[in-house]
Amino acid sequence: MDPKLLDILVCPVSKTKLIFDKDRQELISTAANLGFPVRDGIPILLETEARALTAEEVEAYRAQK
Fold first, then answer.
1. 24 backbone dihedrals φ, ψ, rounded to 5°
2. Which of 3, 19, 28, 59 is deepest in the core (most CB within 10 A)?
3. pLDDT 10s digits, 9-63
4. Rounded to 5 degrees, what are φ and ψ at 37?
């Protein structure tokens, strides 16, 4: 994921910064508890395409910050 792109992208639900999870190819919103897929390098920032994160996942991502 291009760092410049990551700097300007925000969660469409909470309007907060996103965290890129390279292993899962997801953009993570800890504010909305959602993981948005990145397919072929293209972020899919649709709430209907997002995966709900578990409380444990959210805490793990927050600890990484």
1. -90, -10
2. 28
3. 999 999 999 999 999 999 999 999 999 999 999 999 999 999 999 999 999 999 9
4. -70, 150
Q: Among all chains, which residue has been given the structure tokens 């965290």?
A: 19
Residue 12: DSSP 8-state: T
Report the number of distinct structural domains present in the chain: 1
CB contact at 8 A, 31 and 50:
no
Reading the block at residue 56, the tokens are 């444990």
Q: What is the CATH number of the domain that holds 23?
A: 2.20.25.10
In this predicted structure, what is the pLDDT of residue 45?
98
Report pTM. Answer: 0.92
Q: In this structure, which amino acid lies at residue 11?
A: C
